[in-house]
Amino acid sequence: MKVAKSRTSLLAFLLAVAAGCSPQGLQSLEGKVSYQGGDFVFAGDTIELRSAADTSLRAFGEIKPDGTFKVDTLENGKVVTGAKPGTYEARIVISDDDYEHKKLAAKSINKKYLRFEASGFSVTVPSSAVTLTISK
Questions:
Q1: Rounded to two decimals, what is the model's pTM?
Q2: How many whole angstroms separate alpha carbon 34 and alpha carbon 31?
Q3: Would you tell me which CATH number, out of the four given (2.60.40.1120, 3.10.28.10, 1.10.3720.10, 1.10.10.10), belongs to the domain 24-135?
Q4: 101 CB contacts (<8 Å, ≥6 apart)?
Q5: pLDDT tens for each residue of 110-122
Q6: How far apart (Å, rounded) are the C-alpha atoms in residues 86 and 71?
Q7: CA dist., res. 27 & res. 135, Å (int)
């Protein structure tokens, strides 16, 4: 009986992983930021997601030089891959690690994309891929 229970638990875990779901119930989410308005200057900045159902629930992903990102969540003090299923609002957070980058990025983006309420971005988890288009 104990062996059958262990096999059932292992099977459930493997099915969850195969479906892209972590043991914490998180779904992997990847996407891309595209920019209309010139050179892409948002590498190193962050996509932040805020749950529509629970505004304290956030997920985030660093934007790579090609515009791609993978979403992580802070859960119980640890960064874990993915986001909880649901609908999220999204915004861009400009990095303040480099003053020149911050100045250039701030000049290159419409300020509405910096606010959840104004960005117009809605992301549903799970999703196969997300594309967020921003402009000047």
A1: 0.79
A2: 10
A3: 2.60.40.1120
A4: 41, 44, 95
A5: 999 999 999 999 9
A6: 14
A7: 28
